[in-house]
Amino acid sequence: MRDFYMLIGEEERQASDGRWVVSVNPYTEKSWARIPRATAQDADAAVTAAKEALVHPEWAGLSASERGALLRRVGDLIAENAEALSELEVLDNGKLKAEMLQQMNYLPQHYYYYGGLADKIEGAVIPSDKKGMFTHTVHEPLGVVVAITPWNSPLLLTTWKLAPALAAGNTVVIKPSEHASVSMTVFAKLFLEAGFPPGVVNVVTGYGHECGAALVDHPDVAKVAFTGGDQGGRAVYRAAADHLKPVTLELGGKSPNIVCEDADIEQAVKGAVSGVFAATGQTCMAGSRLLVHRSREAEFVAALTEFIAQAKLGDPMQADTQIGPVATKDQYEKVLSYVDIALSEGAHRAYGGKALERTGYFVEPTVLTNVTNDMRVAREEIFGPVLSVIAFDDDEEAIAIANDTPYGLAAGVWTKDLPRAFRYTSALQAGTVWVNAYRVVSYAVPFGGFKKSGIGRENGQEMIREYLQTKSVFINLGSSVPDPFVLR
Questions:
Q1: Per-residue DSSP letter, 262
Q2: What angle is formed at CA 95 by the lines to CA 354 and CA 412, rounded to 5 degrees?
Q3: Which of 66, 79, 240, 437 is the most buried (most CB within 10 A)?
Q4: Side-chain half-sphere exposure of 93, counting CA atoms within 13 A
């Protein structure tokens, strides 16, 4: 059992009342680490540290170019520590070492990108109709930002918030999931090592209803950025509304992955596997609804089940493992319950759908056929390796089924017909649409959802605007002040 600590200012801390949360390795089902179970008092201490750092000359006095240099330096440190960070994430959430290491190796690019963008935040000189006035705008940091992140890719999804927030000049308090906090406690110390002043980056660990709620409700927090389920997102939104705080919400999805009759089946099969099985279904963008043209359904399902039957399930630390365990026992039981629900509603089990008789929270990759879009398995986010196959007869029906969901995070289309691809990308109600690809993201391209899949965008140049506020300035160049009782 290893103990890890919160970071508040430059101090590593236990919880103020000495309590801990135990982390369980989902592969071994054994406890392996403890993190502090923070209180509202700890949350207040972190916000106070961030508020003080926000105005301290060590941070507020830096030029934008100097902030950018710090971000690039932390990118270098992440690259140097990628192996160790990836292993901590695997122990915490059971994701594949191969995937986590790839994420860690890519993570520095986010900090290089926003490090370069930090001194490109430009205001504007505005020609005004008010004679004698010089008018311009400037963009300033919001203040203390709270970033609340989930357990499936903790450091990547934190970075989507942290890098632009710091580039814009804010200070940040991170609240990771209680199921996967260890890597964050180590990661945050790299910012001090890189030269960020104490209090610019803080980490508070524990439960959402204890320290997380206290952070969102704190009067000195200027913005909340949240990634997680839609229920948690609604709770954050309601609490932030009490203080009129802006929010960014990246929530769940029930994303359609559409295979047209002219699709390359071999490529589309790989896209379907990437969409829902490669990450054990534990991604918000999972292509969990597979819409297949009826004329190709039998062929596609046969090719898909043959492909996944060859996948190796096992130790996520091993390089040749292709599917790991579900992250928590509760999630494991939830996934299995959804398979039972689907079968009771008339779905057929084409492959998998059972718990593996072995140590670890393993659920067989599951393919369900005879699914209709009104079944719970097609409408509710499962967050596990369960794929629902829905047949369609033409493009219009496929688009109608795809859009018949409260979510709108992502969608995929597999076709050789370019005009058809453009029709789909125009008609699909989703924040990201892939054509002949799936699960591709970039630090340079905005990501976020329509409908109940969220508010705002992450990544790309426009993301930095989510962490800035605009100030308009009027300067009188010498004209006399007119009648003070009349608005100019």
A1: T
A2: 80
A3: 240
A4: 28
Range of the domain at 389: 256-435
Phi, psi of 461 (to 5 degrees): -65, -35
- CATH number of the structural domain spanning residue 421: 3.40.309.10
pLDDT (tens digit, 9 = 90+) per residue, 55-70? Answer: 999 999 999 999 999 9
333 flagged as catalytic:
no
Q: How far apart are CA 74 and CA 115, in angstroms?
A: 10
The H-or-E segment that residue 474 falls in is strand 468-476
pLDDT digits (tens, 9 = 90+) for 266-278: 999 999 999 999 8
Kindly state whether residues 344 and 468 are assigned to the same domain: no
Overall number of domains in the chain: 2
Does 55 lie in the same domain as 132? yes
Q: Looking at the predicted structure, is the pLDDT value of residue 104 above 90?
A: yes
The model's pTM: 0.96
Is residue 307 classed exposed, middle or buried when 0-12, 13-18 and 19+ CB atoms within 10 A define those classes?
middle
> 155: number of CA atoms within 13 Å, CB side?
36
Range 219-239 average pLDDT = 96
**How do residues 405-416 score in pLDDT, each as one tens digit?**
999 999 999 999
Residue 120 within a domain: yes
Condensed to tens digits (0 to 9), the pLDDT of residues 349-402 reads 999 999 998 999 999 999 999 999 999 999 999 999 999 999 999 999 999 999
Is the C-alpha dihedral spanning 455, 459, 464, 467 positive or negative?
Answer: positive
Q: Where are the beta strands (DSSP E) in 59-162?
A: 124-125, 133-141, 144-148
Q: Give counts: helices (H), strands (E), the chain.
A: 15, 23
Tell me the C-alpha distance between 159 and 162, whole Å: 5
Q: Are residues 458 and 393 in the same domain?
A: no
Q: Is residue 311 within 8 Å of residue 365, measured between CB atoms?
A: yes
Measured CA to CA, the distance from residue 187 to residue 444 in angstroms comes to: 22
Question: Do 192 and 314 fall into the same domain?
Answer: no
- Given the residues 250, 381, 458, 466, the one annotated as active site: 250
- Would residue 399 be called left, alpha or beta, if left means φ above 0 and alpha means ψ between -120 and 50 degrees? alpha
One domain for residues 277 and 379: yes
Type of residue at 131: K
